[in-house]
Amino acid sequence: MSSAELYPFVYLASQSPRRQELLQQLGVRFELLLPRPDEDAEALEAELPDEAAHDYVVRVCAAKAQAARARLLASGRTHAPILVADTTVTIDDAILGKPTDADDAFAMLARLAGRDHDVLTAVAAISADGALLPTVLSRSRVRFSAAPEQMLRRYIATGEPMGKAGAYGIQGRAAEFVEHIGGSYSGIMGLPLFETAALLRAVRIDF
């Protein structure tokens, strides 16, 4: 049985081109289920006081899944499984989200340079009948090389760090900083394929 038969169709509640590419790699047909203009999507990503990174990413992912389900019900579209993922970078117990500007991106990258950090990606799925499956968490370890300020500034000037947790995308030019990874490369990109495939199998309906 092909992956297309296993996973005929899901809604993907993510704007990330990387997640879309990874889902296509599994052979999954999908339709985007994105926030409406009146939704405050950024509010879902607000940190709680003293919240651990793994608790944060799991909570945010589950909240995004519930928001996507409400969006689907309001749209009148055909019911189908929903897939959601959220990624964060953590070092020194701090959560590094998306940089607000170039200076913020530099501060993040300078903090990561020459050190190990963790990349956490949570994945949630909601079945066609509205059941939220337990959110799964992929944890990977990444070691960055030491990098001079000029190299970091040059990378930031490409615009690639903006909109990415920890101010980098491992699938892009940031690969020049990566000395070693332990864990899931696709998870670092934003959608761990092993965990995602298991979730998609769990929400199979009549196929």
TrEMBL record:
Cofactor names: a divalent metal cation
One GO process term, biological-process aspect: nucleotide metabolic process
EC number of this enzyme: 3.6.1.9
GO cellular component: cytoplasm
Catalytic activities: dTTP + H2O = dTMP + diphosphate + H(+); UTP + H2O = UMP + diphosphate + H(+)
Active site (UniProt): D86 (proton acceptor)
An MF annotation (GO) of this entry: dTTP diphosphatase activity
SUPFAM superfamilies assigned: ITPase-like
UniProt xrefs under Pfam families: Maf
Primary localization: cytoplasm
Similarity section: Belongs to the Maf family. YhdE subfamily.
Function noted in UniProt: Nucleoside triphosphate pyrophosphatase that hydrolyzes dTTP and UTP. May have a dual role in cell division arrest and in preventing the incorporation of modified nucleotides into cellular nucleic acids.
Protein name, UniProt field: dTTP/UTP pyrophosphatase
Phylogenetic placement of the source organism: Bacteria, Pseudomonadati, Pseudomonadota, Betaproteobacteria, Burkholderiales
